[in-house]
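Lab channel / #folding
Pinned by the channel admin:
"Please post every new chain as: sequence first, then the structure tokens as a reply. Keep commentary short and put observations after the output so the thread stays searchable."

First post following the new format, from NK:
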Amino acid sequence: MKSPFPSGTAVLESLLPIALFAFSASITPGPNNLMIMSSGLNHGINHSTPHLLGIWLGFPAMVVAIGLGLGTAFNHFPLLHEVIRWAGIIYLLYLAWVIGSTREMSSGHSSQPLSFTQAVAFQWVNPKGWIMATGALAAFTSPGTEIWLGVAKVALAFIAIGGPCVAIWLFFGVGLKQFLTEPRYLRGFNIAMGLLLAASVIPLALEGLTQLGAAT
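Reply from TO:
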């Protein structure tokens, strides 16, 4: 009699593509990774941990919310998505300015790292996050009774793999402290990170302007 449960090989074959996607999407540079690396350098591991946990848990929560039907709501109300898009652009530019203007490592008087709540909320205005979430759900779920299983697999993959990838960027930022002990080097690093973060919104802004032009 054939077992109703999938074999171990079948499970592995279904999970491996999701795991590879989660790794490649999470380890590459993006707003989350640039910000957590900068936070690690300027504020250290302890003060940056809430920021890390906010990314680690906030992004999978966003995946679940979209998978449960919030993405459909955005399709019915495209204006809502555009509001989130431009709010994200403005907020990212603000964060880029904060990072670029940081002059010294945290001593109680410099800029503060993101809190857990701020990091969770940031996932909803992160352009790369939207691409990752919608891309993963489109690729690894299908309409029907098993869509919830697909959503759960994607969310768990980003918890198991995405979080540690972001943590690597945090530790990398902390490791840079020994090479950026002089204020001018730290200042240059923060300016570079601010510019890279600002540059990351360019594709999002161009896409938004194109859609606005098409609508008019």
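NK: The first helix runs from residue 8 to 27.
TO: also worth noting, Residues 8-215 form one domain.
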